[in-house]
Design goal:
Number of strands: 11
Strand content: over 45%
Radius of gyration: 13 Å
Largest sheet: 7 strands, mixed
Distance between the termini: 37 Å
Structural class: mainly beta
Length: 124
């Protein structure tokens, strides 16, 4: 399954970016899509996920109140709207698809397919 991310870039602190994740051959409905990020030399960490079966979502504590995950069913695209960005949000952001039917969370082992990543850089 191919996942394609877009929307990364360079933004000043306090600014916003919207990341998008889509798949040309797989329909996200009925699955969970997550967003993760990774800084060079550090482990990949979960940022947010959306469970499209139960219509639930969750966020890592540091992004709560600033990031919003959503799904456009018609476009088969999951978005991560990132507001009030901070320099510590700088990372490569990855979207991921989980085939699990339950017990979803923000752990990398729960996800089966990954995108190529998109760089987000927040300047101070």
């Amino acid at each position: 399954v191919q996942l394609v991310e877009s929307g990364g870039g360079l933004v000043q602190a306090g600014g916003s970016l919207r990341l998008a994740c889509s798949s040309p051959e797989y329909t996200f409905d009925g699955r969970t899509v997550g967003w993760f990020r990774q800084v060079a030399g550090k482990e990949r960490e979960g940022v947010s996920y959306i469970d499209l079966v139960r219509n639930t979502s969750d966020y890592e504590d540091s992004v709560k109140g600033r990031f919003v995950i959503s799904k456009d069913h018609a476009k088969n695209t999951v978005y991560l709207q990132m507001n009030n960005l901070k320099p510590e949000d700088t990372a490569v952001y990855y979207c991921a698809l989980s085939l699990l039917d339950y017990g979803i969370g923000l752990y990398t082992y729960m996800y089966d397919y990954w995108g190529q990543g998109t760089q987000v850089t927040v300047s101070s």
